[in-house]
Amino acid sequence: MERIVAAREELEKQVAQKIVEGIKKLLQEKDYLVLGIVGGSSVAGVFSYLKEYSINWNKVHIFMADERLVPLDSDESNYKLAKEAFLDELLASGELAEENLHPFVYKSNQGDYGLNSYIEELNRYGGRMDMLLLSAGEDGHTASLFPNHPSIKQEDKSYILVDNSPKPPVKRISASKNLLLKAKESFLLFFGEQKVDAYRKFSDDNISIKECPSKLVKSIDKSYVFIDIEE
Question: What are the structural domains of the chain?
């Protein structure tokens, strides 16, 4: 695991650059890859830099590592943030095909809200996310896996339903811990003073993954952790 400490804007550029480098390397080995992303303010800046790079986006399939159970046009949608920050521009330029985008479609009239359909969709692309862009929450959570919560204890191989999230909205889907651990490469962000305690927990060897789920990335083959310093 590599830790990189710098000012936030510099880190956003570095994260984007390392994601692009990772994509190029993986595409030398594979015909396509799956990139898993989250939402939130921490990743928005990274998205804006990603669209500046010229890579073969048509060999990249984008899935959500977690999502709120809301319509795709909701301001709470993680996918909407990504779409507005960089995906729309790549689509408009023809660099990325619509079929390479895999948002979670919330189906309020189904008992599983569309969860099983999303698992099947990921399975069509290998059942794993090759690369992950994640952020850590103030409590040390990542994706929608929360400390000392049923979400981090579930042993499912793919996505899980989180219907009692400690953070609003209470209903979400998330990559399970086992799905996150299938990744070859991960990028975890600790941005903002409010993440100081979360980073301390992440760095403390006496604190378990159940107490600090973002520690999962330490078990991923190639992982980068980015910590900003407010000047």
Answer: 2-228 (3.40.50.1360)
